[in-house]
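Quick one, C-alpha cells below. Sequence please?
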C-alpha cells in the first residue's frame, strides 16, 4: 500500500481529489494537508511515498514545502498542481526530463498513470525528489520573485529571481550565467528561499532554458570524469614463483603451487 499526500488549501479540492482515488484503495492510502507546514508535520509522522501539492497556499506555500523536502526528504517524488501551465511550458519541461506538473483542472487519468509510473520507478530506485533545475522551472512558471540560497558541502551561492526570471547569480567569485551554471552542476544541493532582493540588477542575459541545459551538461561531465578517476580495484598478483617445485619443510612436496591459480603474463 502506497501513501499519497495531497496538499491544497482548498478543502473542497482536497476532498474531490481524495475521492477520485477511492476506487483504488487497494493500491493507495490518501492523506491530506491544508498547507506546507501541515504537510511537513504529516511527512515526519507518516511514511509518505509521493506528494501532490498546490503552489499558492497560506502559512507555507508550495515553494517552501518543495525546498524543505529537497533538503530533508529528497527521496520523495513531488507532483505540482498549477493553474499557470501551458503546452509550451510542458514541452520544455518534458524535454528536460524534470519534475511532473499538472495543470488545473486536473485530468485524473493522467495523474493516476503518472503516480503509478513514478511509484514503480521508485521501487527500482530510479526516482528522487525535485532538483534545483526543476525548482527554477517552477519559479519561472509561477512568476515568483525570491532569492534562493544554495548550499553544498561548505559552498554557498545565491540565485536572484524577479517575477520568475533568473536575473542574477553569484558564488565562489563567479557571477551571472557562469555562477548559475556552476550551482546547477552541484549534486545534492540544499535550497533555502529568502525574500527577493529589490536592489539587484539584471546581469543574466541568456534564457533560463539555455542555462538549465548547460548546467545539466556540465553536471554530466563532472559525473563522467568522476567515474574515470575511480577505477575498480583489481586483485594484486603475487610475485611470479620459481619454476622449481616448492617443497614443504620436511622435503616433501607442499600444497598446490599458487602459480596454477593465476594467468601469468
Amino acid at each position: 500500500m502506497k501513501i499519497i499526500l495531497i496538499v491544497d488549501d482548498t478543502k473542497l479540492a482536497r476532498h474531490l481529489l481524495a475521492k477520485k482515488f477511492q476506487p483504488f484503495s487497494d493500491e493507495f492510502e490518501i492523506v491530506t494537508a491544508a498547507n506546507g507546514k501541515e504537510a511537513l508535520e504529516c511527512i515526519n509522522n507518516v511514511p509518505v511515498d509521493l506528494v501532490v501539492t498546490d503552489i499558492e497556499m497560506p502559512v507555507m506555500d508550495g515553494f517552501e514545502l518543495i525546498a524543505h523536502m529537497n533538503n530533508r526528504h529528497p527521496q520523495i517524488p513531488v507532483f505540482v498542481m498549477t493553474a499557470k501551465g501551458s503546452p509550451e511550458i510542458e514541452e520544455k519541461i518534458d524535454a528536460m526530463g524534470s519534475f511532473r506538473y499538472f495543470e488545473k483542472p486536473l485530468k485524473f487519468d493522467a495523474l493516476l498513470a503518472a503516480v503509478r509510473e513514478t511509484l514503480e520507478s521508485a521501487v527500482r530506485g530510479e526516482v528522487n525528489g525535485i532538483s534545483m533545475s526543476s525548482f527554477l522551472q517552477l519559479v519561472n512558471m509561477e512568476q515568483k520573485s525570491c532569492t534562493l540560497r544554495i548550499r553544498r558541502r561548505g559552498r554557498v551561492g545565491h540565485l536572484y529571481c524577479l517575477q520568475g526570471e533568473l536575473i542574477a547569480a553569484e558564488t565562489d567569485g563567479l557571477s551571472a550565467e557562469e555562477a548559475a551554471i556552476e550551482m546547477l552542476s552541484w549534486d545534492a544541493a540544499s535550497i533555502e528561499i529568502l525574500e527577493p532582493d529589490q536592489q539587484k540588477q539584471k546581469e543574466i542575459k541568456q534564457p533560463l532554458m539555455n542555462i538549465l541545459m548547460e548546467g545539466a551538461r556540465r553536471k554530466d561531465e563532472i559525473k563522467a570524469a568522476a567515474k574515470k578517476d575511480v577505477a575498480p580495484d583489481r586483485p594484486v598478483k603475487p610475485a611470479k614463483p620459481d619454476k622449481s617445485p616448492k617443497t614443504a619443510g620436511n622435503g616433501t612436496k607442499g600444497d598446490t603451487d599458487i602459480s596454477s591459480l593465476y594467468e601469468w603474463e
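Residues 145-229 form one domain. The beta strands are 2-7, 28-33, 50-53, 78-82, 100-103, 146-152, 155-162, 165-171, 174-175, 190-194.
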